[in-house]
Automatic annotation (TrEMBL):
UniProt GO cellular component terms: cytoplasm
Listed GO MF terms: oxidoreductase activity
Cross-referenced Gene3D superfamilies: D-Amino Acid Oxidase, subunit A, domain 2, FAD/NAD(P)-binding domain
Protein name in the entry: Gamma-glutamylputrescine oxidoreductase
């Protein structure tokens, strides 16, 4: 079987050195087989190992190959649909539980980094930047909403104040979340995989799950081996393919694009983002950016529905970067890449169980860095028989895309066009 390398990206080029892990050969037995070595799978495995389970992780390519190793690297709290939307959908009792969990993922990341000494350029502070007065009003209500659920590390910023943290003329104000922040996402995943191995867990790379034999004692088959387990956690997200058909019908892989500049040097980097916070704007089709440890600007945005790779990523994203920072017009782009995330129709994550022993979490809808770390803890709790928090997610309503993925793509693209137009017109 051909080895699948990391796609070219700034993260792959600057990853901490780790030897490749072996592919699974032959048969192994374990308590839990985790399919996918992205954040959901790694977080689940780590929590399970800390609670005494024997865990085997199967990864089709390399650790952090998918969205976990290619995203914007931003620690952003809550979900892709905020707690007020959840409250209207499921009522106050369930929303209370989900609201309490909305800020836990970032704490879990910081705990992991500290406990296992993970070198991933962790920095505190994330900015939501408002381009219109309407967006600023939304941030004011979002602050009240988040504070209602106990989240207090927030500061509203007027136009003068936001200029102190980001040198961009577009913004009328914003909100600073000091429990937000940013990381080198691939190095976080690699550090979590090393932590799994330090606790006696096993991670196999180049070992795609090709078939699940369901039943009382499920078996996961790979091209050259199989894993007999008591439980399975399916954590493939946008890279799961059709391994579990009933999950594929309810979700759609989408691509997002990211570019990274050449090193800007200390002085220019400090002029752009003096406190080294990360930033995302409040548009529906949002732009997001931050500095790396070696003072490059990582800038992302845009969505390609159906997860096709666009021909020229730099041509899509560079104009967005220059709109925010015209002072970078002569700066060279060293890296450009795309990665897939999994979109659900409700924009809320899908969590559940198939039969008695196959658990899953998927569909972060572009809000995955913090949510996946929480999901790992919630899945591990469910396997230990503590299902209250798992059930709060599992009870969220979910819908198949109209016409399946084939027709879902144009529907979603049409919706994005509509919201993009609203962004442009300032609605």
């Amino acid at each position: 079987m051909a080895n699948i390398p990391y796609p070219e990206s700034y993260y792959a080029a600057s990853a901490n050195a780790v030897p490749p892990r072996p592919a699974l050969q032959g048969e192994v037995e374990t308590d839990v087989c985790v399919i996918g070595a992205g954040y959901t799978g790694l977080s689940s495995a780590l929590f399970l190992l800390e609670n005494g389970f024997k865990v085997t992780v199967l990864e089709a390519a390399r650790v952090g190959f998918g969205a976990s190793g290619r995203n914007g690297g931003q620690i952003v709290n809550s979900y892709s649909r905020d707690i007020d939307v959840i409250e209207r959908t499921v009522g106050p009792k369930q929303a209370q539980l989900l609201g309490q969990m909305a800020f836990e993922g970032g704490r879990i990341i910081r705990e992991r980094v500290a406990k296992y000494n993970i070198q991933c350029d962790l920095k505190d502070g994330g900015v939501f930047a408002a381009i219109t007065a309407r967006q600023m009003a939304h941030l004011e209500s979002q602050k009240r909403l988040w504070e209602r659920f106990g989240h207090t590390q927030l500061e509203l910023m007027d136009q003068r104040r936001i200029r102190e943290v980001v040198s961009c003329e577009q913004y009328v104000g914003g909100m600073l979340d000091m429990s937000g922040g940013h990381i080198h996402p691939l190095n976080l995943a690699l550090g979590e995989a090393a932590a799994i191995e330090s606790l006696g867990g096993t991670v196999y790379e180049q070992s795609p799950a090709v078939r699940i034999e369901r039943g009382a004692n499920p078996v996961v088959h790979t091209p050259q081996g199989r894993v007999r387990a008591k439980f399975i956690i399916v954590a493939g997200n946008a890279y799961l393919g059709n391994l579990v058909p009933e999950l594929a019908a309810k979700s759609m892989p989408c691509g997002t694009q990211v570019i990274t500049t050449e090193p800007l040097g200390e002085a220019l980097a400090k002029r752009l983002l003096p406190q080294d916070y990360c930033v995302e704007d409040c548009n529906y089709l949002l732009d997001y950016y931050r500095l790396t440890g070696d003072k490059r600007l990582v800038f992302g945005g845009g969505v390609v529905y159906g997860a096709r790779d666009p021909a020229n990523i730099e041509a899509i994203i560079r104009p967005k970067m220059l709109k925010a920072f015209p002072q970078l017009k002569d700066v060279k782009i060293d890296y450009a890449w795309t990665g897939n995330f999994l979109l659900t129709l409700s924009r809320l994550p899908q969590v559940g169980r198939l039969g008695d022993n196959i658990y899953y979490s998927q569909g972060c809808s572009g809000h995955g860095v913090t949510y996946t770390h929480l999901a790992g803890k919630v899945l591990a709790e469910a396997l230990r028989g503590q299902a209250e928090r798992f059930d709060a997610f599992a009870d969220l309503p979910h819908y198949p895309f109209p016409g399946g993925q084939l027709l879902g793509t144009p529907f979603a693209a049409l919706g994005a066009w509509y919201y993009g137009l609203r962004d442009k017109l300032g609605f």
